Amino acid sequence: MTVLAHHSFSAWFDRARIAELEGELTEVRWQNPHVGFTIRTTDETGQETLWDTQTFAVSGISRWGITADLFSVGDRVKVAGNPSRRGENQLWIWNILLPSGEELLFGEREPRWSDRVLLSGEPLPATEGESTDPSKGIFRVWSTGSGAPFLLPEVLDPNFDFSRYPLTESARAALAAFDMFEDDPTVDCVPKGMPAIMEQPYPMEFVDQGENILLHIEEYDLIRTIHMGGDTDSENQAGSSLGYSVGRWEDRNLIVTTTNVNWGYFDSVGIPLSDAAVMVERFMPTEDGARLDYQMTVTNPSTFTEPVKLQKYWIWRSDIEVGRYECVVDD
Q1: pLDDT of 48-75, one tens digit each?
Q2: How far apart (Å, rounded) are the C-alpha atoms in residues 258 and 264?
Q3: What is the CATH number of the domain that holds 101?
Q4: Burial 273-291 (b: 16+ CB within 10 A, else e)
Q5: Do 141 and 275 lie in a common domain?
Q6: What whole-number distance in Å separates Cα of residue 8 and Cα of residue 12?
Q7: Rounded CA separation 95/107 (Å)
Q8: Last residue of a domain, one of 74, 92, 121
Q9: In this structure, is residue 327 part of a structural domain?
Q10: Are 158 and 54 members of one domain?
């Protein structure tokens, strides 16, 4: 069964509603996991309200050429985005109108107020990879193509119904009891574990270290070790959020089996996963080296009534490097 994975965005913000604000920038937070702005608005009675707004991570928007020097405390801006589901003064920003009259678009959005679009970015780097140096195989930096940003098939449904997973009764009960606002396992910069970390949208790099392969993931500055040599007995290994990964080659394809994962979740919105879960990944570079196709099969009888299969792909672009994530916890 091939089903959508997801991101927790829709649990926090209402995609069906768009709100507009106009006011003064009182704070700019240029950081991961989300760039944030505090905006002070004033209504017709003179009542002031502070809005906490956010958008994509520095790791993403800096690659579109959007930099911190575009924003200054004291600027008067107009923004549009999705309001929080929590009923507080919070907003996810898609459009910003700068004092210059130029408009920034975060993601594939249409301008709302200006025909002078200063910068516009796709959610991720371009889908086209570079068809050069296939001898590198998987050992290069891979970027997420905009056509497949998460672990999913061809179309991302932001309103995906998680009950479509083949869940056991106990897993359905755990999902129903999960409170996204209280129980989110990734708050305060706590890294995702396996398998959710593989949906991350930032660059990653495979590094050949002889007996082992290191997978350097930009999000949370994580390193996964894939054991290829003599240290491939996972039975007596200690559990961890990333588990214990053992790899083997099938021609040019890297097959990785991961066990001993104690993160406790299949995702970040409440589907549980026991430490008996088995994850089998297939990393399959194309012959020209431009693209890395990916499949993951997750087997966990206490959660799923049948194995769940996920997929995505990455592209290679020579101008992309794995950067520092340096996640910051807001006060």
Answers
A1: 999 999 998 898 888 878 889 999 999 9
A2: 14
A3: 2.40.50.140
A4: beeebbbebebbbbeebbb
A5: yes
A6: 7
A7: 9
A8: 121
A9: no
A10: no
